[in-house]
Amino acid sequence: QVLSLPIVVIVHGNQDNNAKATVLWDNAFSEIDRVPFVVAERVPWEKMCDTLNLKFMAEVQTTKGLLKEHYFFLAQKIFNDHSASLEDFQSRSVSWAQFNKEILPGRGFTFWQWFDGVLDLTKRCLKSYWSDRLIIGFISKQYVCKLLSTEPDGTFLLRFSDSEIGGVTIAHVIRGKDGSSQVENIQPFSAKDLSIRSLGDRIRDLGQLRNLYPNTPKDQAFGSHYNSEWVGAG
Asked: What does the pLDDT read at residue 52?
């Protein structure tokens, strides 16, 4: 006898996300000599970080993995804790329920459903941008405001949407004549949006965007991602 890799049988496509979560958890956290179907209910957060990173790199087919600041954002999200430090999270463990059963506060989806949506979007539409480190992605709206509030007018960055599954949004600074600043978040783009017009071309279209945070002119950062279509005068 030999145990196979885990298999989940589903009867409808809407069960696909939960099935992937079950297989991922079993593959990553079960012991080789375990009793069949017995898997840890809680795992160290550091192990979860390694698993999410490996999954992200494999799905997106990129050599650019998650960074320390990305893990910090993900920990704040899964533990619903914005007061703990990066070191505090390293000693915690995360449960299956936190991973894929409990709905995130104020949302209609679980942590895994949200993360899987990011995976799918990045794999389908954002691989080259991510690999060129043009997308911060895993960063909170609150922290974006802190980063951008002191920057010049037109400074922007890209983050994955908190409120929608599989969306990327552009946050940018608008500085008034009195010197006051306001950070605006453009309506998130979905995979469907980006299949119609690429992210690079959308950024080129938006005249209010000038420099990718912290200070790279947008044409220098995204020029290689523009389509070489001829744009005539309107």
From this structure: 94
Query: For residues 122 and 185, what is the distance between their CA atoms, to the nearest angstrom?
Result: 19
Which residues partner with 185 through β-bridges?
A: 171
Which of 3.30.2010.30, 3.40.50.1000, 1.10.238.10, 1.10.10.10 is the CATH number of 11-223? 1.10.238.10
Report yes or no: 60 and 5 within 8 Å, Cβ to Cβ: no
pTM: 0.84
Please state, in angstroms and rounded to a whole number, the distance separating the CA atoms of residues 148 and 155.
7
Residues 100, 178: Cα–Cα separation, whole Å: 47
- Evaluate whether 71 touches 79 at the Cβ level (below 8 Å): no
Backbone angles phi, psi at 228, to 5 degrees: -85, 40
How far, in Å, are 87, 99, 113, 174 from residue 91 at the CA level?
7, 17, 25, 40
pLDDT of residue 233: 37
